[in-house]
Amino acid sequence: MTTTAPAATRKPATMAQALTRALHDAMAADPTVHLMGEDVGTLGGVFRITDGLAKEFGEDRCSDTPLAEAGILGTAVGMAMYGLRPVVEMQFDAFAYPAFEQLISHVSRMRNRTHGAVPMPLTIRVPYGGGIGGVEHHSDSSEAYYLATPGLQVVTPATVADAYGLLRAAIASDDPVVFLEPKRLYWSKDDWSPDAPTPVAPIGRAEIRRRGESATLITYGPSLPVCLEAAEAARAEGWDLEVLDLRSLMPFDDEAVCASVRRTGRAVVVHESPGFGGPGGEIAARITERCFHHLEAPVLRVAGFDIPYPPPMLERHHLPGVDRILDTVARLQWESGWTEGRGA
Amino acid sequence: MTTTAPAATRKPATMAQALTRALHDAMAADPTVHLMGEDVGTLGGVFRITDGLAKEFGEDRCSDTPLAEAGILGTAVGMAMYGLRPVVEMQFDAFAYPAFEQLISHVSRMRNRTHGAVPMPLTIRVPYGGGIGGVEHHSDSSEAYYLATPGLQVVTPATVADAYGLLRAAIASDDPVVFLEPKRLYWSKDDWSPDAPTPVAPIGRAEIRRRGESATLITYGPSLPVCLEAAEAARAEGWDLEVLDLRSLMPFDDEAVCASVRRTGRAVVVHESPGFGGPGGEIAARITERCFHHLEAPVLRVAGFDIPYPPPMLERHHLPGVDRILDTVARLQWESGWTEGRGA
Amino acid sequence: MTVLEQPGSSRNKSSLPGPPPDWRPRVDPAPLLPDAEPYRLLGTPAARGLDADLLKRLYAELVRGRRYNVQATALTRQGRLAVYPSSTGQEACQVAAALALEDRDWLFPSYRDTLAAVARGLDPVQALTLLRGDWHTGYDPHRHRIAPLCTPLATQLPHAVGLAHAARLKGDDVVALAMVGDGGTSEGDFHEALNFAAVWQAPAVFLVQNNGFAISVPLAKQSAAPSLAHKAVGYGMPGRLVDGNDAPALHEVLTEAVQRARRGGGPTLIEAITYRIEAHTNADDATRYRTDAEVEAWRAHDPIALLERELTARGLLTDEFAAATQDGAERLAADLRGRMNQDPALDPMDLFTHVFAEQTSQLRDQAAQLRAELDAEQTPAEEARP
Amino acid sequence: MTVLEQPGSSRNKSSLPGPPPDWRPRVDPAPLLPDAEPYRLLGTPAARGLDADLLKRLYAELVRGRRYNVQATALTRQGRLAVYPSSTGQEACQVAAALALEDRDWLFPSYRDTLAAVARGLDPVQALTLLRGDWHTGYDPHRHRIAPLCTPLATQLPHAVGLAHAARLKGDDVVALAMVGDGGTSEGDFHEALNFAAVWQAPAVFLVQNNGFAISVPLAKQSAAPSLAHKAVGYGMPGRLVDGNDAPALHEVLTEAVQRARRGGGPTLIEAITYRIEAHTNADDATRYRTDAEVEAWRAHDPIALLERELTARGLLTDEFAAATQDGAERLAADLRGRMNQDPALDPMDLFTHVFAEQTSQLRDQAAQLRAELDAEQTPAEEARP
Ligand SMILES: Cc1ncc(C[n+]2csc(CCOP(=O)(O)OP(=O)(O)O)c2C)c(N)n1
Ligand SMILES: Cc1ncc(C[n+]2csc(CCOP(=O)(O)OP(=O)(O)O)c2C)c(N)n1
Ligand SMILES: [Mg+2]
Ligand SMILES: [Mg+2]
Question: So which cofactors does this thing need (chains A, B) (predicted)?
């Protein structure tokens, strides 16, 4: 099914609403889908993403667990072994850390270690990132940890439609998916029809959100709106920036990324997570490996600083913003003539 | 003190012996140094690195803890708050995962969150990497997780002398150090004098282990001997490879790395940890950012595959070996003339 | 014919093999078990014997604490505080924890325990820095012997144990008191901390404030134990169950535990049964998971009212004392209000100052970048980008 | 004048405030407490009443198990097995765990429990694949209802709880039995698993093999609890303490717990007191941390010898039965030896086959690289690098 809803039925919806709808539809479609986590039942989650689901599907299918993240993920592993399709909610990014042992040593390896006999069709929903004025430990961007763990798929929506489509795809996947939900986009709105939802988005495909010729901004999740804004602002400087939304960090869409960068010849990777050891290094390195002769300048990065996430009153200085992106675009060696003699 | 022991007193020692000696000397020099971990007391650790220390310094200063890694690191945090200098042993790489919450949310941030009032002079010793025929969960290379955590220093010796010098420096550091010990080099030998040990190695300085002109192999820990071997083998192909041992992944010695790459114009990063999201991406990206105009070819990477660590009988196919390194060096575009016209 | 070279087939006289050679019950479990009912003093004849000064001190602190809670909640409505997890209804736990400690002891509070820190003497504005958002920890933990207010649940418990253990190794008679919620007892760190404490006989006291809920999750979905205090048995430490709204009872039980720890008697687990009268935080909607009737029932068991009844019965609640108490509370609130209404002075460059003792070259570069951006912000826009 | 609008100052008739409104002891702790002494049958009068066939079956399995342990250890010396954590001395636990389960039930073994898997019917070679090193899990867990042998301690316990819970949700009367060592009980995952199991009333049984040591660390440095079984109380499940070398006693206690779980009666924690006669693994040097005398004392309490005594007393250990038993054990050993002496057939390309259901383009590239390297290995060296 590739049809899109007729424009008439589309109306503004928030990313939170689209996520709730995705969970709802997945539960309705497949009785093995079980939600679990802290406060996901009666309360509907602290971000209200599971609102109403316990009521509709019963507490057994949307259940409040004891407060213990390793226990939540560890029991979900056992449930998956018995044929269920657990969808786990971690309440905040940093509170997934106690479950890392289960994630790294079991969730990510179970299929592999059992020679394919025990798949892990688990979805782990992690509200991530800052910009919401959260107190300490409520604003981390931890995608680097997930990316360094072979066997995990790492997916993050940046649009309302993707929130629905990618979450449906994550739940349908027979492999574990870390589904990163950008906290500060929960209340972002877009025209979208909950009655005829967009088709399930395939995992592993990047998407060009804005066409441009001068350079490519490569980003995902919470930084997409910032990049789009930067691209608009860049017009005043005479730059026509392309903006690429990765959507899936693993699998990584080398094809789409390289096609764009080969066309524009310049790239900046933008993310909120600290730069050192963050996803940007991997992305820049693989672009350079694959597109070296097409590059007019090194791939640059705009990332969070290499510091613990700051207190709310200082977070705006940490987060990649339009100015920092434009300053970086300005460093893409627009004036240099050195590429002329290239043989590639 | 910068004197080196007179050659006469130097005799073969293993990395394990140098580590034991470093712990011993640190304990003797500073009564606040306390070792703790599973089996570190009576047994001397499963790798015997703490052999004899409980006997010499008493069980209070080298103590067997209950079997709980979060508890070990978490209590070490409290001990550090009270003015001790704990040195924690994680028995194997993968068994540090249960302690990740403590590491990420507390150890790495304590100084920062308290505005400098509560430093964390903790050393976390982690035997890491494969190549020793270890069964499942005994051969991980987890450095990417540590690198993605702002506030941690990440250090790893590749030589007997560095094992001593860097461990002394780690223990002396007022900030937390993840001290990665390459398991398969524990029994590597070198001429070294335990009676007049080499000076304490400063953290954050890379070291050129082999001078060369054609290209730089950038590596650390268990892959250093492999790179040196590859460099020897490369002579037959007409390549004179430089080998750079990073020693410290954070702080990162941009200066030494860039100086070498600017000179050779080509670089390959070699490590055992999976490539995707691993340290190599960061390293390649920052070299490219800084040395773009000096690069004759993209910085390439030789890393472990993006798979869970294989069973012992298959590990040799996973680990970066001499052939794979040489194959990669061969891809550094030796024939291309395209760099001629460069303006840089 | 046997598979083992054992005198197995030629049987011994006694047909009873001994117990396993190394078996012995290592500790008698009986003294570790908590009482069947929560311990209380108020309303019992024993209350009559309590020291009048102590009761008055507790009362004054409770009233002050309640006023602090009310004021902090009001500040969230006025936008001067980002979020406040109120301890209204739990003031007896907060106050008793603070008063049970000597100056040299350490307090390890959870994110809900700002009042305990204030009752210990911490400046209320510094106690609220985390929740206002200008810095994570607004005070010097060493100066106040108060660890950072801890957001990740139960993760500060092992810190308390390690600190207590270190103090003991150094020969200092320092006790660490750590606070955690009922929900937090489910975390692995709770288990590991208590086990380490018992094995090390560390001078640590664990106070579980069982307020019946972890945000929306009621205790029955959190634990099936007879009580949370019963968890003590599994570690080999005594468990005590206390009415968490009975300030003198709490004070007595906590003081006993602290003294025992100080004497080298090892750790104690104390469960205080209480109730959170307000929502989880100002951002929470408690009507989603509990009834007004339940809240009302607990209001009738209010810690201040309980103590007030006793003070009145003993004629200790004179108009003068009540007025002075009220006055002190109002002064605290006015001071807090006034100072929280001022914007804190912030330096963005602080982001880089305390990541490491010595700044890395990487952080130096980033600091320079931010410095340049801040300077550019001062400059007219057209000049900013060259 | 009061700070609360409460009828506080006008006191009620009764001076006793009620208990906290929501307080009630939720479970009576008494029935959860383990006995003061390890439960045993062998050597007691009750042993006489035990079913002869059961005793003989247990005996045959113990003898077979011992032979398996001896053979596997021998294989490490011959270089056919990388490492072997022997369960010699713990065979009663291993065998009883296997026999207590129905076919549809699940076993969650730790890394030391290969024998339990073999006693359940798993091919001994498949059980040893992990330790030989040709693949992590050498069997299909679903086919045998045996979860992967688990190296990270205690981490498989939550899996067992989740599986048991899922089975119950599906309406299947399946029980999960999870095994863990004394050391493993200190891990946070132990705590979280038992708590989830009790809250969910999951049909799970936890068997702690307390063999006195976690590698070199003796129990006293691991736990200060009266017994490890006493940990059950803190979760609200029954705790049982058993002589872990008394196979019939273990079988009875385990079977009871499994049946109770199957009936919906919830989880049980069982501590079996036993001893590891061999070193931790063949790579360990046990003389560093324990005395020969201690080992000898436990040899005298050997599970096979204990049962043999009873069989002999009841005249059940006929020459014929003993010979058949011995014979079966030798056949197992010979088969194991023979098959382990063959090198396993390995395909390096398997490294990429099961990382994901659908291979990523990244892994496709890497697989192609390895394929090329393997092909080059076949080719003479000079041709290999172009
Ligand atoms: C490790 C961790 N997981 C989840 C959270 C999110 N969270 C904050 S408060 C809370 C409930 C805490 O309940 P309880 O321990 O009973 O303390 P109370 O709020 O009742 O004081 C949760 C789940 C957290 N802070 N830390
Ligand atoms: C999480 C974790 N930490 C550490 C280890 C290393 N290790 C392997 S066995 C062992 C001791 C286990 O003791 P116990 O639980 O009593 O089981 P036993 O070996 O006696 O059967 C240790 C520390 C591990 N496997 N997993
Ligand atoms: Mg609570
Ligand atoms: Mg043991």
Answer: thiamine diphosphate
Q: Which among A169, A192, A215 is the end of a domain?
A: A192
Residue D300 has pLDDT above 60, yes or no: yes
Nearest-angstrom CA–CA distance, C143 and D23: 39
> 3-state SS of C157-172?
HHHHHHHHHHHHHHCC
Structural domains in chain B (count): 2
* C270 to chain A, closest Cα gap in Å: 19
**A106, A137, A138, A318: which is the annotated catalytic residue?**
A138
As a whole number of angstroms, the distance between CA C375 and CA C276 comes to 47
Measured CA to CA, the distance from residue C358 to residue A58 in angstroms comes to 55
Q: What is the pLDDT of residues C101-146, one digit of tens each?
A: 999 999 999 999 999 999 999 999 999 999 999 999 999 999 999 9
Same domain, C297 and C153: yes
- The reported pLDDT for the residue numbered D18 is 63
Q: Which domain holds residue C377?
A: 350-384
Residue C77, classified by CB atoms within 10 Å of its CB into exposed (0-12), middle (13-18) or buried (19+), is: exposed
Distance from C-alpha of C307 to C-alpha of D247, rounded to nearest angstrom: 58
Neighbours of chain A (3+ CB pairs under 8 A): B, C, D
- Smallest CA-to-CA distance from B155 within B171, B122, B175, B178 is with B178
Q: What is the pLDDT of residue D24?
A: 72
CB D196 within 8 A of CB C195: no
| Measured distance CA(B279)–CA(B300) in Å, rounded | 12
Q: What does the buried/exposed string (b/e) look like for A77-112 if buried means 16 or more CB atoms within 10 Å of the residue's CB?
A: bbbbbbebbbbbbbbbbbbbbbbbbbbbbbbbbbbb
Sign of the four-CA dihedral C120, C125, C129, C132: positive
Rounded-to-integer distance, Cα B179 and Cα C318, Å: 64
Q: Give the number of other CB atoms < 10 A from CB of residue A315.
A: 20
Mean pLDDT across C45-50: 95
Cβ neighbours for D132, distance < 8 A, ≥ 6 positions apart: B313, D80, D81, D82, D340, D344
pLDDT at A2 over 80: no
Nearest CA in chain A to B273: A148
Closest to A147 measured CA to CA, from A321, A285, A33, A319: A285
- Region D96-103: what's the mean pLDDT? 98
Residue B145 and residue A150: Cβ atoms within 8 Å?
no
Q: Are residues D46 and D171 in the same domain?
A: yes
pTM: 0.96
Residue A202 belongs to some domain of the structure: no
Q: Do A181 and A220 reside in the same domain of the chain?
A: no
Please, which residues have CB within 8 angstroms of residue D306's CB and are 6 or more apart in sequence?
C17, D42, D43, D245, D246, D247
Q: Do D256 and D183 reside in the same domain of the chain?
A: yes
Say yes or no: C369 and C230 in one domain.
no
> Last residue of some domain: D305, D322, D340?
D340
| Residues A178 and A35 reside in one and the same domain | yes
pLDDT band at D93 (very low <50, low <70, confident <90, very high): very high
Sequence-separated (6 or more) residues with CB below 8 Å from residue B201: B161, B162, B165, B166, B168, B169, B247
Tens-place pLDDT, residues B301-327? 999 999 999 999 999 999 999 999 999
- C183 CB near ligand 1 (under 6 Å): yes
pLDDT, tens only, A203-219: 999 999 999 999 999 99
Chain A positions in Cβ-Cβ contact with residue D356 (cut-off 8 Å): 111, 151, 153, 175
The 3-state DSSP class for residue C315 equals: coil
Domain enclosing residue B318, as ranges: 207-336
Enclosing H/E stretch for A139: none
Task: Give pLDDT tens digits for A250-259.
Answer: 999 999 999 9
Q: Identify which of C281, C133, B117, B147 has the alpha carbon closest to the alpha carbon of residue A309.
A: C133
Question: Does D379 have pLDDT greater than 90?
Answer: no
